[in-house]
Design brief:
The complex is a heterodimer of chains A (500) and B (112).
Chain A (H helix, E strand, L loop, with lengths): L5 H19 L3 H26 L2 E5 L10 E5 H24 L6 H20 L3 H19 L5 H32 L4 H10 L4 H18 L8 H7 L2 H27 L8 H23 L4 H22 L2 H32 L10 H4 L1 H15 L5 H15 L3 H27 L11 H19 L1 H17 L3 H13 L1
Antiparallel strand pairs in A: 1-2
Chain B lengths: L1 H19 L3 H23 L21 H32 L4 H8 L1
Helix pairs in contact in B: 1-2, 2-3
Classes of the chains: A mainly alpha (500), B mainly alpha (112).
């Protein structure tokens, strides 16, 4: 199965081709970027189709057998993440064409954009702990640079703050890897999981898990560690905010946490209720704190950034509930959040592009003059709130079902009540940007921007309406791949010996 | 055990610098300290007393080698740390050009 390395090799190669292409013919750069994202999307669909037949595809880098060599382990959960990354990367790249017309050095943007995509793809398909760190740093470094892309005071400060927090997380991750290596003498995820079983529930076990959880909570911006996020998202160019909010923190923080907790450390709700209660606590804290803070914001993108933290809390809540429905809800939520929050940040980008203004009090009356943007915003907002035919509804529904099945009735009720918070802060944007009468000059957003937004709107509606096939073929297998737990390592080694 | 503890202490010193210092350059130095401590830890994990370099020249070479993997990891980690430090110093330089100060507190004041 040699298509696996293409997922990160393709964007990585194109990232370094882009400077050459830019020397030859500048407008071609955007085309390369969009085409590569689209090819990745097709590849992701193909990969998902393959995982229907084979639960685990192992690719050996340089043909070294595991655990000696680095392997790429591609299962349904990786396939799901790859799909979401490629969708968001494609729309953001589409959106960038006109949005970047105000910026200079566009090819640098696309180079970093592709590097970031390559890093994220690498994180989700790798089967090696240190490799995961390397890809995490590739993606994180390019995202720091992209946040500072405007090189104004605000961007530089936000980028510095993001970098300080992000690097503390990254280096803690590296320290944890060093300690795990000292104990287990291996870095292969499957092998590490075997080695950890012999020292299960020792102090070392919990200490390394705690360090990893700390590192990933910073990367995912869960509440006690969220302070970089409300600065970084507004400062970044809108396509990058969309990519960061839509998928980046999910890959850096949520995917890694889920993979490590379920598949490597092999914890389950039944065996370790305390740890999963901790995840629930982190989730609820994020939802409540960030939701309440979002109510108070006066900046379009800053409000969305806080909303993003609170939505990540829902994902963590789903994983914390930890039974089948909870995990399905959390995975569905990653999809729903990627589509909806990606869309909302794109609408903010189109408003900023047309009016040059982010302050909610100065904006107004854009509902008629930018009708595509306004309606896209409404669909995205309704999905975040969780209105029935849209994708966000099913995500919340599964989390709530999971909570009830696990016997946490109060969590189910508070999740429903806290959804009202998101209604409140999103109505604030709706009210002051699109409904309120205003005199601000505006014309409709450029064509490619509208295409990108309409594409996401269609996906939100389609995934919502056709949720049953999505559930059966994409989200359900992904949840099973996670809940397989320690079976992961057996599967990796069995697949490897089969191929050999 | 002592080596692990001393590396962790070095790590915490770096973290202390990052959290408490207001000078941006000192924050960057704090990061350098953390990176050194982790790299040192890696190198020490692979170390064995009186062991050979892991180069196999004959099949009957005695199996008393230093673990080569941590050394490879440290090389990779150093390259990543180089990238991080370069980017961080670039951003600090840009901030200095704009505000003419390295003091994080003053930058917040200037922002208003």
């Amino acid at each position: 199965m040699s298509f696996i390395p293409l997922f990160f090799a393709l964007p990585l190669v194109s990232a370094f081709l882009i400077p050459i292409v830019a020397k030859i013919y500048k407008p071609l750069v955007w085309f390369v970027c969009t085409a590569v994202s689209f090819i990745l999307f097709i590849l992701a669909l193909y990969g998902l189709a393959v995982t229907q037949e084979i639960p685990m595809i192992v690719y050996k880098m340089g043909n070294w057998p595991p655990p000696l060599g680095i392997i790429m382990a591609f299962d349904s959960f990786s396939g799901f993440m790859v799909l979401v990354i490629s969708i968001i990367a494609f729309t953001c790249s589409l959106f960038s064409l006109r949005f970047l017309s105000n910026y200079s050095g566009q090819w640098k943007f696309y180079t970093l954009f592709m590097l970031m995509t390559a890093g994220m793809m690498g994180i989700v398909i790798t089967g090696d702990l240190f490799n995961m760190f390397v890809f995490l740093e590739i993606a994180a470094l390019s995202s720091y640079a992209l946040v500072a892309f405007g090189v104004e005071g605000e961007q530089l400060e936000a980028s510095f703050k993001y970098m300080v927090m992000g690097e503390i997380g990254g280096l803690t991750f590296l320290l944890a890897i060093a300690l795990i290596y000292a104990k287990a003498s291996t870095l292969n995820l499957a092998d590490v999981s075997n080695a950890l079983q012999s020292i299960r529930y020792t102090t070392f076990f919990w200490m390394s898990l705690g360090m990893l959880l700390f590192a990933f909570s910073i990367k995912a911006a869960l509440v006690p560690f969220h302070s970089w996020l409300p600065d970084a998202y507004p400062a970044a160019p809108a396509p990058i905010s969309s990519l960061l909010a839509g998928i980046c923190t999910k890959v850096f923080g949520i995917y890694t946490t889920a993979r490590i907790v379920f598949n490597v450390f092999g914890l389950t709700r039944e065996s370790d209720p305390m740890f999963f209660n901790l995840l629930i606590g982190l989730g609820l804290l994020s939802i409540i704190f960030a939701g309440l803070t979002a109510l108070n914001q006066k900046d379009y993108k800053r409000l969305l950034a806080y909303s993003s933290i609170s939505q990540v809390g829902f994902i963590m809540l789903g994983f914390g509930i930890g039974n089948y429905y909870g995990v399905v809800g959390a995975i569905f939520y990653i999809l729903a959040h990627g589509l909806a929050k990606g869309l909302l940040f794109l609408t903010s980008g189109s408003v900023v592009h047309v009016t040059g203004e982010r302050n909610l009090q100065k904006l107004g009356g854009l509902g008629e003059r930018m009708s595509t943007t306004a309606w896209s915003f409404r669909v995205g907002a309704l999905s975040v709130i969780g209105l029935p035919p849209l994708v966000g509804f099913f995500a919340k529904l599964f989390i709530i079902i999971g909570a009830i099945k696990a016997g946490f009735l109060w969590i189910a009720i508070s999740a429903i009540i806290l959804s009202v918070l998101s209604l409140a802060y999103l109505l604030k944007i709706e009210n002051s940007v699109f409904m309120k009468k205003g005199k601000i000059e505006a014309k409709a957003a450029p064509f490619t921007m509208r295409i990108a937004m309409v594409f996401l709107v269609m996906l939100i509606v389609l995934v919502g309406i056709g949720f049953q096939p999505i559930m059966d073929f994409i989200v359900g297998p992904a949840a099973q791949a996670l809940l397989r737990g320690l079976e992961y390592s057996h599967l990796v080694f069995r697949t490897f010996t089969m191929n050999f | 055990m002592l080596i692990f503890t001393s590396c962790i202490i070095l790590f915490l010193i770096g973290l202390y610098a990052i959290v408490t210092k207001r000078n941006l350059i000192k924050i960057a130095i704090g990061f350098a300290l953390i990176e050194y401590s982790v790299n040192l830890l890696f190198a020490l994990i692979g170390f064995k007393h009186n062991a050979l370099a892991p180069i196999i020249t004959r099949l009957d070479t005695p199996h008393n080698f230093v673990d080569p993997i941590p050394q490879a990891l440290v090389l990779t980690a150093i390259v990543i740390a180089l990238g991080t430090t370069a980017l961080m110093l670039t951003i600090i330089l840009r901030i200095y050009n704009r505000y003419k100060t390295f003091d994080a507190a003053k930058i917040k004041e200037l922002k208003g």
